[in-house]
Amino acid sequence: MFYEDVKVKAGESVSRLAVAYGYLAHDYSRVWNDPKNATLVRSRRVPERLQPGDVIVVPIPWRVTHKTLTVEGSGVGIEVKRSGARGTRLSWVQTVYRHNQPIGPNPAPFCVDACTPDDSLPFYWTNAEIAADPTLRQKFVDHPSRSAPSAAQGTTRWRAIVSIAVMTDKRVTVYDSLVWGFDMTPANAITKVGPRAATAQELAGHLHLLKVGKGTRSASFHALGWTFRVPSAV
User: Fold this and answer.
1) Which of 8, 144, 205, 230 is the most buried (most CB within 10 A)?
2) For the stretch 81-115, what's the b/e string if a residue is b when 16 or more beta carbons lie within 10 angstroms of its beta carbon?
3) Helices and strands per DSSP (H, E), number in the chain
4) pLDDT at 233 (0 to 100)
5) Angle at 118 between CA 113 and CA 114, to 5 degrees
6) Residues near 53 by beta carbon (within 8 Å), at least 6 away in sequence
7) Does the predicted TM-score (pTM) go above 0.90?
């Protein structure tokens, strides 16, 4: 578990913030009564007196609870699910290493998925996709595929890191990060890789790619004001 520090804005309440970060509305007391909010509770006494400008600390206990990776005809399929309710400030981010078979207009081997950008945000699901299916905030699904590489190309080694993402304004905290992917030989023999926990070095690369990655706008996510971090305490 880690803690997200949140500066309260006009119109926000403890219950609304709890829901935004994956709690059910009636569980707001789990946020309000957390020991890290003791000073705020002494000052305001009751949640109804929360004021704009107050800083409330939201515990984030949600974890990956389900992950499957399956070999498919021309790649693999992955499904990852987390605990907690949907939230509106919870999502997923993914960075990809495409090795010798990059696809789309971007020829770089490394990218922030979607590697052919479909919006200007750093998240895997677009707002339109989540609006059509709100459960996607709790579920990550991907089915990367490739043609069998040529003998000259050699084995294709496709890799990705997917993380639960918590968004506070334009600050994104990533955690429970999983490395996964597949190897494909010129004979179309496919071997799945992972999913496994990312190492510290892999997380550093993941954060760097998120920082320098681009969506449909020409500027990087960092230049657009986004910041990315791992929790300071888990």
Assistant:
1) 144
2) ebebbbbebbbbbbbbbbbbbbeeeeeeebbbbbb
3) 5, 11
4) 54
5) 10
6) 7, 8
7) yes
Rounded to a whole number of angstroms, the distance between the first and last alpha carbons of the chain is: 5
Q: Which domains does the chain have, with CATH numbers?
A: 2-60 (3.10.350.10), 64-229 (no CATH)
The encoded tokens of residue 62 equal 């949600």
Give residue-wise pLDDT tens across range 57-77: 999 999 999 999 999 999 999
Q: Residue 105 above 90 pLDDT?
A: no
- pLDDT value, residue 169: 97
Write the DSSP string, 170-198.
TEEEEEEEEEEEEEE-TT--EEEEEEEEP
Q: Which residue has the tokens 């010129």?
A: 186
* 114: its two tokens: 């979607």
Please report how many Cα atoms fall inside a 13 Å half-sphere around the Cα of residue 21, on the Cβ side: 29
- As a whole number, mean pLDDT of residues 2-8 equals 97
If 0-12 CB within 10 Å is exposed, 13-18 middle and 19+ buried, where does residue 193 land? middle
Q: Which of 100, 205, 99 is nearest to 161 (CA)?
A: 205
Q: How many CB atoms lie within 10 A of CB 9?
A: 11
The closest alpha carbon to 89, from 13, 11, 32, 173, belongs to 173
